[in-house]
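ingest -> validate -> predict -> emit
validate: passed (alphabet ok, no gaps, 142 aa)
predict: started
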Amino acid sequence: MMTEEDLQRLGLALLNSPAEAIVYSDREGLIRFWNAGAERVFGFTAEDALGQSLDIIIPERQRQRHWEGYDEVMRTGVSRYGSGDLLSVPALRKDGSRISVEFTIVPLKDADGAMMGMASVMRDVSARFEELKTLRRQAAGR
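emit:
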C-alpha cells in the first residue's frame, strides 16, 4: 500500500516524464501544463507553449472539428475518449512538420463537478502510421 506521499511522488514522476506528452488545457483551450514529453514530441518548450492556444499543435484543417468537440466536453463534462479509448489525429510540431499522435484525455472537474479543463496524454505514432500506410499500399498493389 502506497502512502499519500508516495502517490504524490509517483504523480510528479509521471507528469514530468519525457516518455509521454502530457498537456493540460483550461476551459478556453489555453495550455496551462506542458511536460518534458510534450517538449520532446512537439518541439515547443514549456515557455513557448504555456498560455498559448492548443492551435499551436492542431493542424488548421482539424481546428474547427477539434474545437466543436472540445467545447462540447467543456459544456457537458462527457467525452467518449475519457474512458481510455484512444483517439488518433494529426498534429503539428514547432518546425511545422506534421506527426500522427494517439491520445487519451483526462477531464478535470472542480469540487462542484464543473469542467475546469482537460489533460491529454499523447504519444507520437508517426512511424507506425507510415508503416501501416506502406503495408496497405503494398497489399493493394498485389
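The chain has a mean pLDDT of 91.
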